[in-house]
Amino acid sequence: MLETRFALDRDGAEMLIERADRFDMEVDDVPALIEMMRHGQHAPDKERLLGMAYRVAAADGVVGEFESDLLWRLGRLLGFGDDKIDAVRSEFVASARPA
After folding, report:
1. What are 72-86's pLDDT values in tens digits?
2. Between residues 28 and 88, which one has the greater pLDDT?
3. Is the whole model's pTM more than 0.90, yes or no?
4. Which residue in 26, 27, 56, 61 has the most C-beta neighbors within 10 A?
């Protein structure tokens, strides 16, 4: 998904994942991070972020109950209502299904 979405080659995608892993190890305050994302991004960017998370959750063909609850909570933290979260989920899970 990183290669396609961000036009990265395999090395670039791996470097981005490594950078994200390092960042994850440094961040202790997840609510503060989400608050920054909530106010620092435009709604379409937040929708795409939530949608990409749904695509990852649906990569195995199903979004489990735990995944669904976690992503619903993320959507609420990003400032979305239930209808918007459902719409994002429907759009991005459908596009993640194998052909």
Report:
1. 999 998 889 999 999
2. 88
3. no
4. 56
Report the distance separating Cα 55 and Cα 62, nearest Å. 10
The token pair that represents 70 in the structure block: 């976690």
The three-class DSSP label of residue 41 is coil
| C-alpha to C-alpha distance for 44 and 59, rounded to whole angstroms | 22
Tokens read off for 38: 């909530």
3-state DSSP assignment of residue 42? coil
**Chain length of the chain:** 99
59 contacts 96 by C-beta, under 8 angstroms: yes
CB-CB contact of 96 with 54 (8 Å): yes
Is the torsion defined by CA of 90, 84, 66, 70 positive or negative? positive
